[in-house]
Amino acid sequence: MMAFCPATREDHPSPVHSGPDPPPKVIPEEATLKLIPVQEADFLLHSYSFPLPEEHIAQQPAECRDGSRLMVLDRKNGTVTSATFADILHFLPENCLLVANNSKVVPARLWGRRKGGGQTEVLLLTPPPLLKTLPESAAPGFQAEAEALLRPAKKIRPGERVSISGDLELELVEQGEFGRCRVLLHWQGDLQTLLQEHGSLPLPPYIRRQKPAAGKPLPGLPPVSCDAERYQTVYARDDKAGSAAAPTAGLHFTPQLREALKASGREWTEVTLYVGYGTFSPVRCEDIREHSMHAEYIEISQAAADAVNRAKREGRPIVAVGTTSARTLEGAFAAQGGARPEHAISAGAEAFSLAAHAGWVNIFLYPGTSFQVVDGLITNFHLPESSLLMLVSALAGRERVLAAYARAQAEGFRFFSYGDAMLIL
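Predicted structure:
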């Protein structure tokens, strides 16, 4: 585990002054962002496009987890404040409840070979804990149906097998759209162990790394040993290992920062969302309301549900750590018959009730829909035209968010998974 170090970086010096209560750097009054009502442009895909030079995409994590920069967007007065993540306690409401996703990333990216010798890249999308083993009659071992992304998928025919190792292979059952396929996994022994031995962390494609099974190093793209640690949150649980991507907003937290949160009286609880295709599936409909989100499996314990209900009753704000935590809370509430995402709660906080939940949910939040559980959000800076950018825009307004993104570029903030953070309140 990385040792604690001061929240500064030479390449991005902190604009926050030292001292117990650093004064924020606030955008002048004339440059503040104003609240605007939902407009027709909010439903158009191209409205979420913005230029992003490659140099703004983070290739490495910050030297220290909480040394990442932090942009604070205040929805009430439209001000934007620049700070570092270690200073987040100065901005979080004193009595808030933070809700984080404790899922752990599995080495779900695999490389195998077909009988003809062609190499195939596999990204396992079904969380291993959710695989249901089927009777195996032709050979010893286990088999289970799963969903995976295959590349190149078009060259593989149904019934053809791809060998990952002597103890692990997959069989194509049915091809879907955009490389998504239904497959049968065949293995002997413990599947999690096989994934650890033969798989690699599924870093996003915009983080450039050497391809382990390529045989030859790729010039300028060395493997980075810190990925195994830094592409996991410090609170990821081994018994929640099943995500195909990290809940990246949580990557900024250190054990020391979590202790400081606890000492300050802020409450922390955890939920689980196994991050899969729904997080990174692109929106392809020009009218974003026609986009279908991929279902995601979530778990909310009774303790977590009680913490959320208690905060609501006491009028304390709930801050989701990441879009996955936000979708977990909002998806479960909607699935349990709460107010539909398109409508605000009319009965008041005293009537609010969230129950423990385990199952698949499907929720797409975009401008024009309302958050029923979440009051604030800690998140990273997202891809253009992504469903995550639309979720953030649903909370803070599209034009306001895009203006903040433009300012982030001007100030040298780093984008995407290993990039800097934003706090929306």
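Summary: Confidence is low (pLDDT under 50) at residues 1-36, 213-223, 339-347.
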